[in-house]
Please model this.
Amino acid sequence: MDRLKGRVVLVQADTEFGTVEFLNAVRQRSWRLVVGLRSNRTLQDGRCLKDLYRHAKRGLQVVLKDIDYPLTVSWFWLKRADNKRELRFVASTYPYSGAYLVQLGRKRWAIEGFFKTAKHQFGLHCFGQSTQLGVYRWLILSLIAYLLAHWIDQWSLPSVLDWKIASRLAVETLLPSIVWFQLLKQIRRSTDIAAQYGFEITLKSLPDPAYWERCKI
Model:
């Protein structure tokens, strides 16, 4: 904490941290908080945040219910992966301009989007390390997987910015043995289901490539 003295500390957080307790805790430390807020948050005058859209200007100062200090509020439309737009509200304990709040909100959402992608597509949520060094190592492995998928996606024609497809394509291209072992594991788990329908799953090795060359003569 001593290293923070004399510095401007900007805390950015998503909607889940927009609680009264978190707002108060950050403000008590004299830090500047930029946090997402749900559109149904109630103001002291009885209105909701969503009522400000179309009826107010970005950068308006409002007071939420259960707090006694003003927040600067702005909003923007966020384009989701399904090409649908979602109205997002962002608030700050510091009187930033509405345009700057939108800029901060979009940048924070880009960070959140990357975190969710790394978590669900590149194994970030699977780490079991209990030391700081272990966490760093797992984070680096997750970032390497992310970069490999990005490069494979750039080389594919046409390039599709779908991380689930890109990660699968990267594994199939660079590490096909992993796909093969996953398939074997799935087959073993499915033998009972096949037997219920009167089938038996049998794997048979293909002839050696040299055998095929002899057959051509």
Observations:
- Strands lie at 10-13, 32-37, 60-62, 71-79, 85-92.
- Helices lie at 20-28, 98-121, 132-155, 163-174, 176-189, 191-196, 209-216.
- The longest helix spans residues 98-121.
- The two ends are 79 Å apart (CA to CA).
